[in-house]
Design a protein that fits this description.
Blueprint (H helix, E strand, L loop, with lengths): L1 H25 L13 H6 L5 H6 L5 H27 L12 E2 L3 E2 L3 H19 L1
Antiparallel strand pairs: 1-2
Helix pairs in contact: 4-5
């Protein structure tokens, strides 16, 4: 479980750096600077708790699996953001100025992203950790 936690923590960091670097291109920043936070490692590492869900949903359609992963990720994002802010006084992300945010912790317009992220984590789990 520790190995899988580390795997998902690092995988999450890599994906976030690529994502934020890509977003910088849309903002006209030719440096393509990607970034993350040290707080994100344990948050992404908690994807290890999805492993049981991956196995439980194995025979269902990718649409149902993606939807369930999306709900799990939204829930984890809200809870981890709330806890991190409560404990440290800061949250690694702040969506409060974005449309469709809930308490600044989640953005509902990220639903397709979290749908795909869940399926990506499932694929990576089956490809590298099983």
């Amino acid at each position: 479980m520790v190995k899988d936690f580390i795997f998902f923590g690092i995988l999450g960091w890599i994906i976030e750096i690529i994502w934020t670097g890509g977003l910088s291109a849309f903002k006209g920043d030719k440096r393509l600077m990607g970034f993350t936070s040290l707080y994100m490692f344990p948050i992404y590492g908690c994807a290890v708790f999805l492993e049981g869900v991956f196995m439980l949903l194995e025979s269902t359609s990718f649409v149902l699996r993606g939807a369930i992963y999306m709900i799990c990720i939204f829930s984890a994002e809200y809870v981890s953001g709330f806890i991190t802010e409560t404990v440290t006084g800061v949250c690694p992300w702040d969506y409060s100025k974005e449309k469709f945010n809930i308490d600044g912790f989640i953005r509902l317009d990220y639903a397709p992203l979290w749908f795909m992220m869940g399926l990506t984590f499932e694929f990576m789990y089956k490809a590298f950790l099983l």
